[in-house]
Amino acid sequence: MKRRTVLQGFSVLVALPLIPACSRSPGAGEASSLITPLKKPHEEWRALVSPRAYQILFEEATERPESSNLVYEDRDGTFICAACYLPLFESANKYESWTGWPSFTQPIAGHVATRIDFKMIWPRTEYHCVRCGGHQGHLFSDGPPPRGERWCNNGIALKFVPTDEPLPALRS
């Protein structure tokens, strides 16, 4: 175990010069001043979402590829955070990435925040709902033009609301 920790530490040192280049997409990860973050204890979130959704949203787990029906969702509508119901993505920005996870070309501006994680040793840009802090997925630079971004989301961290249905009230 100690050898692994030392190797991870070295990988972080090697990757440090890369952090500014991949830390976030300009503007996309900036929190809106109109969205007030919720300060809800984890016990309250645990009571509101399924055990698996809690693992993904608040313990930063990842679902298996192809495990979410949202991969195939192609109706017009809005994808909202499964925890607090903040709208995160519009269906117009969803595309088939063939990765097994719902993928988007961009989020709704100001509704996600990004940070670097080193869980896979190499730095990755992770993103969260700005309102509840729920982990959604990772941002990659292999998306379609013109932005070249792939916002790869855990399906269980989202709910889909078709255009002909009203968005649910935000959870407080």
From TrEMBL:
A single GO cellular-component term on record? cytoplasm
Task: Provide the GO biological process annotations.
Answer: protein repair; response to oxidative stress
Query: NCBIfam families under this entry?
Result: peptide-methionine (R)-S-oxide reductase MsrB
Report keywords, A-Z.
Oxidoreductase
Sequence ranges assigned to domain MsrB in this UniProt record: 42-163
- Molecular function GO terms recorded: peptide-methionine (R)-S-oxide reductase activity
* Enzyme superclass (EC): oxidoreductase
Which InterPro entries does this one have? Met_Sox_Rdtase_MsrB, Met_Sox_Rdtase_MsrB_dom, Mss4-like_sf
- The molecule here is called peptide-methionine (R)-S-oxide reductase
Reactions it catalyzes: L-methionyl-[protein] + [thioredoxin]-disulfide + H2O = L-methionyl-(R)-S-oxide-[protein] + [thioredoxin]-dithiol
Q: Taxonomically, what lineage is the organism?
A: Bacteria, Pseudomonadati, Pseudomonadota, Betaproteobacteria, Nitrosomonadales
PANTHER family in alphabetical order: METHIONINE SULFOXIDE REDUCTASE, PEPTIDE-METHIONINE (R)-S-OXIDE REDUCTASE
Q: Name the EC number(s).
A: 1.8.4.12
Q: Name one Pfam family in it.
A: SelR
Superkingdom of this protein's organism: Bacteria
Q: Where is the signal peptide?
A: none
